[in-house]
Design goal:
- The chain is an alpha/beta fold.
- It has a single domain, classed as Nucleotidyltransferase, domain 5.
- Helix content is 38%, strand content 23%.
- Strand 1 and strand 2 form a beta hairpin.
- The radius of gyration is 15 Å and the shape is globular.
- The termini are far apart.
């Protein structure tokens, strides 16, 4: 399989904030980009970032329980991914994000930040973890990760 070149955006969907990360154009390294407030204009802001960076793909974290079952947040992440897909800017992939938020908290604690002074970046760090896992998977498995979300043709 040929290597896919281009920037990807990682998205960690939360109830209050959405963390966004970006990859380099070679798909090797994920870095924090922005925290977007959840609500009116959230999809539009993320689409604007994708357009500005000429992103080839969105990688949206799908919160699944350790048991493999859906969680309360799973339907919300799927719905948000569908909204992004309906913007028709770039393909949207849902990828398993088990433990990404707890990994983000651990990484921030290890760097000396506490929960209170990490609120503004925790979602970005989670998005970095989601995107980096997807990039690593693609390089090792020789194929894109996750499941593509199809735009709603009825819109």
């Amino acid at each position: 399989m040929t290597e896919r070149a281009g920037t990807r955006l990682g998205v960690d969907v939360g109830t209050v904030r959405i963390g966004v990360a970006r990859s380099d154009p070679h798909g090797m390294l994920a870095t924090p980009l922005e925290t977007v407030p959840r609500g009116a204009g959230d999809v539009e802001r993320i689409v604007a970032l994708a357009t500005e960076l000429e992103a080839i793909e969105f990688v949206v974290g799908l919160p699944i329980a350790l048991s493999g079952r859906d969680t309360a947040s799973t339907a919300d992440a799927r719905a948000f991914a569908a909204r992004l897909a309906n913007a028709r800017v770039a393909p949207v992939r849902l990828v398993d994000e088990r433990l990404s938020t707890s990994s983000a908290h651990s990484a921030l604690r290890a760097s000396g930040r506490n929960a209170k002074n990490s609120r503004t970046v925790i979602d970005q760090v989670a998005a970095v973890i989601i995107l980096q896992h997807a990039l690593d998977y693609e390089r090792s498995a020789m194929g894109p990760p996750g499941v593509v979300v199809a735009p709603d043709e009825r819109l």
